[in-house]
Amino acid sequence: MPLLNPAQNVFLISTSDLSCNSFLLKAKQNLLIDSGSSTATEEHISTLKKLNLELSDISVILHTHGHYDHFQADKIYSKAETFMSEFDSKHLIEENPEFTRIREDSFHPKIHSFLKENQVLEFLPFKLKVISTPGHTKGSLCFYEPDKKMLFSGDTIFFHTIGRTDLMSGSFSDLKNSVQKLSELDVEHLFPGHGKIVSGKKENRENFEYIKKHFF
Description:
- By secondary structure, the chain is of the alpha/beta class.
- The protein has one domain: 4-Layer Sandwich (Metallo-beta-lactamase, Chain A), CATH 3.60.15.
- 23% of the residues lie in helices and 28% in strands.
- The chain contains 5 helices and 15 strands.
- The chain has helices at residues 41-50, 86-93, 97-100, 172-183, 201-215; strands spanning 4-7, 10-13, 22-25, 30-33, 58-62, 81-85, 113-115, 120-123, 126-132, 141-145, 150-154, 157-158, 161-162, 189-192, 198-199.
- It has a 7-stranded mixed sheet. A 6-stranded mixed sheet has the order 8-9-10-11-14-15, covered by helices on one side. Strands 12-13 form a two-stranded antiparallel sheet.
- Strand 12 and strand 13 (161-162) form a beta hairpin.
- The longest helix has 15 residues, at 201-215.
- It is globular and about 45 Å long.
- The protein starts with a strand and ends with a helix.
């Protein structure tokens, strides 16, 4: 698969199975936003090779939420520190399969630090603001880069659809409020947890309008 580079210093690691979109941000400290399921590890290694990076060059993994298809590929990044909301993290600590939805193996990453609303994470040239977006899970998070107008939305919103709310700790009313909150941001690049990337200010505004009209 060719190297997917949807924005400056942002690289998409995507597979054809049920794993999530994983985004590699080349920065002073290289980081991932979500890693994916264990089936995504080969694509991770391939992408890193194309960028002349080693597994040990990834310093941080930020997680949007605690479902297995977003965290199991962490296991190949033994030197990376991992971050997640406190609520979702506790279910990983407890190895709760009803929450994590683990299917293929029992790997649970150690979460080094809990992320909080409005926390700003500096990985120059990126400054990512943590946004609490309950709905898909109670502890779901998004990451917003205001200068670059990038939104990493996890499983909260996608192109023309929203995350499911019928799983443990999910809430449709919370998701509706979270989507409204995100729609007030200035977004030119939507990097969702699954599916296609949405590029352009007009395209993102239309995407929010479509979602509000058809789902709420």
